Amino acid sequence: MTAIAVIATMLGAVALQTAALVEGEPLRPGTVAIESMADPAVPAPARQAFADAVERALADMRFMALPATSRSRYIARVKVTRTARGAVTSKAKTPGPAAAVGNWGAAIGVSMPSNKQALRGLIVTELEVELVLRDGMKPVWHGRALTAQAEGTAADAPATLAPKLASAAVRGFPAQQPEAISIP
Predict the structure, then answer these.
(1) pLDDT confidence of 57, banded at 50, 70, 90?
(2) What is the pLDDT of residue 101?
(3) What is the pTM of this model?
(4) Positions of E strands within 37-133
(5) Degrees (nearest 5) of the Cα angle 164, 83, 35?
(6) Which helix (H) or strand (E) covers residue 17, if one does?
(7) 181 in helix, strand or coil?
(8) Counting Cβ atoms within 10 Å, is residue 142 exposed (0-12), middle (13-18) or buried (19+)?
(9) Percent of the chain having pLDDT more than 90?
């Protein structure tokens, strides 16, 4: 009877060690499905631009993106928030040269460069990426990046913001990021 108890104890210890190794296993890249979190303040095309940028950034980190309906190891939840935080001045758009030809002659107009400033809203855009282990839906990693840009400028366009924020958010993988990374 004691031999059976010893064997049972040994098997139990081996099972506990195996479970500890699985839980203590270092986080490593694998297959991932991208899931964009809906936010009514961010239009669907902008959310898609950020989801695509996160997919490319994770591919750079050796992840393999699969369609959302597939059975991937991880799910990357992508959340974009845009918040107005006051106003800033930025260069005003100056009209380009103009020319006109009519029945009675021609006219050319050239605007001179000026240092005119326009008041624009300051928009803080934050991208949060959370990796969830599909088995058990347990969050295993998250990264965040944010930037502040003048509203309506080329620097505030989703096509410009998405790649910068996505690469900054996942750059530290697999290390956990306690705070958001701020980028210019």
Answers:
(1) very high
(2) 65
(3) 0.74
(4) 64-66, 74-91, 98-102, 105-109, 117-133
(5) 55
(6) helix 2-23
(7) strand
(8) middle
(9) 59
Confidence (pLDDT) at 103 = 60
Cα–Cα dist 20/12, whole Å? 12
What token pair was written down for 182?
């701020």
Q: Reading across the β-sheet that carries 31-36, which strands appear in turn?
A: 64-66, 31-36, 74-91, 117-133, 138-150, 181-182
Tell me: cis bond preceding 174? Omega within 30 of 0 counts.
yes
Q: Which residues are registered as beta bridge partners of 84?
A: 123
- Residue 1, pLDDT > 50, answer no
57 burial via Cβ count (<10 Å: 0-12, 13-18, 19+): buried
Write the single-letter amino acid at 84.
Answer: A
Q: How far apart are alpha carbons 19 and 25 in whole angstroms?
A: 10
pLDDT (0 to 100) of residue 16: 31
| Residue 184, amino acid | P
Tokens 């950034």 map to which residue? 57
Q: Enumerate residues 6+ apart whose C-beta is below 8 A from 107.
A: 99, 100
Please tell me the predicted confidence (pLDDT) of residue 113: 62
